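Example record used in the benchmark description.
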Amino acid sequence: MPFTPPWDAANLAVSDAQQFGSHLYFGTANENGGEVWRTDGFGWQQVVAVGFGDDANYAVNALAVFGGHLYAATSNLTTGIEIWRSNTGDRDTWRQVNADGFGRGVTREDLTLAVFGQHLYAGVSRVVGATARAELWRSMDGTQWEAVFTNGLGDAGNSQLSALEEFQGQFYLGLRNETTGGQLWRSADGRYWERVFTDGLGVPGNSRLHGLLAKGDQFYLVVSNVVTGAQVWRSTDGTAWEPVMQGGWGDPAHGFADYFDKAAAIFRGVLAVGTVNETLGGQVWHMGSLGFLPLIVR
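Model output (structure tokens):
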């Protein structure tokens, strides 16, 4: 049955979802400023409007829980990413906890948040000259931020940081690289990084590593490929990878999947992945013993 909140049509997209306390929160993209809504399963409440008072914060694009607070990161093409937090999630309890754009100017729209060890991490992209470079920032207390790297891990082709996930005590990140293929890196401490692969798993068209999900001894990687269709790969050690789905579930128009690590989940032991398909509409596929089957098809 439909469970859509009573927001107006200006909320063009739901950008992320996060449980916090007894509520499920949703961040939206809105041309009049991103919003945050929450539900207890019965009713809905708007807790953030007009992009935290700045309509240039046109999307609340990532949510995370860290240190007893709910964090919300905004896309802002005027002053750069803003990160806000609340200890209750209630209206009028949100405070900004970073300098706009981490004090370095405008960032691009897509971003991700994740927790590893004692830090909250934010992955962003920034245009330097004519080139976009991936950046990673972290905070131990949620208010003081330090740069882990701002140079795409030394590769000018690493334009965006698109996924973050912990697996077997290591912190993994996925990078977009349209020159040589997407890259996967990992770290034991969140500061010093080693390459897992840098060639899109042997296919340069695998330029966007958009999803990382861990469950027990299974580690899944969702790759967007706008030429041959999205792919899903699996590993048991984070190093050796095998394909479990290629070719966009039989339709190359499923070029994007699990966009920026926000459209897939493992539920009751089953991997479910959401796609972008501008021809047929987005779909959700779930992985069973016989492979992937459609769960929701428009």
